[in-house]
Amino acid sequence: PKKVTTLTIRAKKRRNQKITMVTAYDYPSAVHVDRAGIDILLVGDSCAMVELGYETTQPMTLEQMLHHCRAAKRGAPDRPLLVGDMPFGTYEFMDSDVALRNAYRLVKEGGMDAVKFEGGSASRARAVRHVVEGGVAVMGHVGLLPQSISVVGGFRAQGRTAERAGQILEEALRLQDAGAFAVVLECIPSNVANIITDRLEIPTIGIGAGPHTSGQVLVFHDLLGMLSHPHHEEFVPKFCKKYASVGLAINEGLDSFRQDVEGGVFPGDGYSPYKMSAEETLRFE
Ligand code: KIV
Ligand code: NA
After folding, report:
1. What is the ipTM, given to two decimal places?
2. Which atom of ligand 1 is nearest to the CA of 46?
């Protein structure tokens, strides 16, 4: 399998081929994302919410990210492009060296090929430029910025006024100028994403941004229905198509196991493979 690089991703936009990106946070999910032929594996800080049960992505630490990056890397060591999110509080400082130091950790200790930053302000773009100059490829991220939830007030669509849409376009252009190789567009109107995609040289990867982006990203747990259950509501974002209900299969398996054990059906003779010889049995019993 040929390794996907930032060049592969840029070439796909030029050839009008759609780019696929899915999150993964551990060994089995990374194995699945690799085997499915997804271009980019994102170890997203959405991990905080879907894997660790936090309400937001803000609590995620660099140490936790590294732990998940290493597991994902072991599951997909040589094909998809591996991108790791810079967690909240590890790259926003005026001193861009902090961002560079932490980006190096995601590459050297986490095994990532590239890192992702949220936001497109002038100071953020300075940090992106500094990290790219330091030799680490950076993916940008504009529109809804989950790490800024305490400023924004909630997880909701962005860029719905002409002014705000213009701002998001400016931010995306600024990130491109700073050396970002691609940019995520999160929760913005389709027409805005379309114009940004046209105006940018680098690819756009959309989530809740309509069909006109260079590629699409979804969160593993959301697209696969990991928390589907026969008697509990599952939260799935409006923009997310659910391609499976894996949670139903998990529930079925666990429920059958419980019933089998409680009913004396499992393990039975069929799953009790270790036998003692007649001679030893005689001596023992
Ligand atoms: O953390 C994440 O899953 C992300 C994607 C939604 C782009 O940043
Ligand atoms: Na993220």
Report:
1. 0.99
2. 1
